[in-house]
Specification:
InterPro entries: ARM-like, ARM-type_fold, RPN1_C. The chain is an alpha+beta fold. Helices cover 44% and strands 15% of the residues. The protein folds into 2 domains: 218 residues, Leucine-rich Repeat Variant (Alpha Horseshoe), CATH 1.25.10; 74 residues, no CATH class. The protein is built from 11 helices and 11 strands. A 4-stranded mixed beta sheet has the order 8-5-11-10, with no helix packed on it. Strands 7-6-9 form a 3-stranded antiparallel beta sheet, with no helix packed on it. It has a two-stranded antiparallel ribbon with strand order 1-4. A hairpin with a 4-residue loop joins strand 2 and strand 3. Helix 3 runs parallel beside helix 5, helix 5 packs parallel to helix 7 and helix 6 packs antiparallel against helix 7. The longest helix has 17 residues. It is globular.
Length: 302
């Protein structure tokens, strides 16, 4: 929702320092799952993920959260620092922004092994399904660097697999319909995995590595494939470009900018939108993504 007041409340939880058992009520409230003898701030990790969950809905909110996470990484408790890479992954799933990749790359060499495990996995999630060449090169370097450490190498291999998800045709991004609708199933799948990474040593690197299959709930194709009314593949030319926000503008404003013309099937990157180049066919759906059925335009003359 991008609700700033909720983010503020969660930041208050993140800024507590624990010396004694004064905050037992909050601990019960935030995280019943970790009732073990975990350190006092274990619920702060969930609060960090909460900030990302609120801020992921819009561009400006996620930019502001990015700066906040930078502060938490520098000045936070160890539990906070372990959760921040996961939160960065949640803010830009399948959207490999350079500043986030650089931050995660820096913390993949951290002194705290759990921070480095989480950072490496987060790199995979940020670039999931994008085939990003720069990220692939980073991960190859990490694989050489961690060749002797099986746990880190396991994370690097996971991240490499995520980067080339479906050979670059799938995405983990939970938003669809021009980033207007959020798939709650997809977010639940991502959260299942990220919450289990808060205790990466005992869960993912322990006996419960199968929790990673939760990511399957978030996978969806990022290609645009067009069919005719008999569901036969129908190659048409489409314009693909950066999506422009045209809500509330009068007339027929341009919905994309800086477009290139391709023939379907095409891949849509993060923040891109497609429109048909000619009026020969009419789409049955107003939003062109995934699998789209086209019907002949009766008023079209060559």
């Amino acid at each position: 929702s991008g609700n700033v007041l909720k983010v503020q409340q969660l930041l208050h939880i993140c800024s507590e320092h624990f010396d004694n058992k004064e905050k037992e009520e909050e601990k019960k409230d935030k995280k019943e799952k970790k009732e073990t003898a975990a350190d006092m701030g274990s619920h702060q990790g969930a609060a960090v993920l909460g900030i990302a969950l609120i801020a992921m809905g819009e561009e400006i909110g996620s930019e502001m959260a990015l700066r906040t996470f930078g502060h938490l990484l520098r000045y936070g408790e160890p539990t906070l620092r372990r959760a921040v890479p996961l939160a960065l992954a949640l803010i830009s799933v399948s959207n490999p922004r350079l500043n986030i990749l650089d931050t995660l790359s820096k913390f993949s060499h951290d002194a705290d092994p759990e921070v480095s495990y989480n950072s490496i996995f987060a790199m995979g999630m940020v670039g999931s399904g994008t085939n990003n060449a720069r990220l692939a090169a980073m991960l190859r370097q990490l694989a050489q660097y961690h060749a002797k450490d099986p746990n880190n190498l396991f994370m690097v291999r996971l991240a490499q697999g995520l980067t080339h998800l479906g050979k670059g045709t799938l995405t983990l991004c939970p938003y669809h319909s021009d980033r207007q609708l959020m798939s709650q199933v997809a977010v639940a799948g991502l959260l299942t995995v990220l919450v289990s990474f808060l205790d990466v040593r005992n869960i993912i690197l322990g006996k419960s590595h199968y929790v990673l299959y939760g990511l399957v709930a978030a996978m969806q194709p990022r290609m645009l494939v067009t069919f005719d009314e008999e569901l036969r593949p129908l190659p048409v030319s489409v314009r693909v470009g950066q999506a422009v926000d045209v809500v509330g503008q009068a007339g027929k404003p341009k919905t994309i900018t800086g477009f290139q013309t391709h023939t379907t099937p095409v891949l849509l990157a993060h923040g891109e939108r497609a429109e048909l180049a000619t009026e020969e066919y009419l789409p049955v759906t107003p939003i062109l993504e995934g699998f789209v059925i086209l019907r002949k335009n009766p008023n079209y003359d060559v």
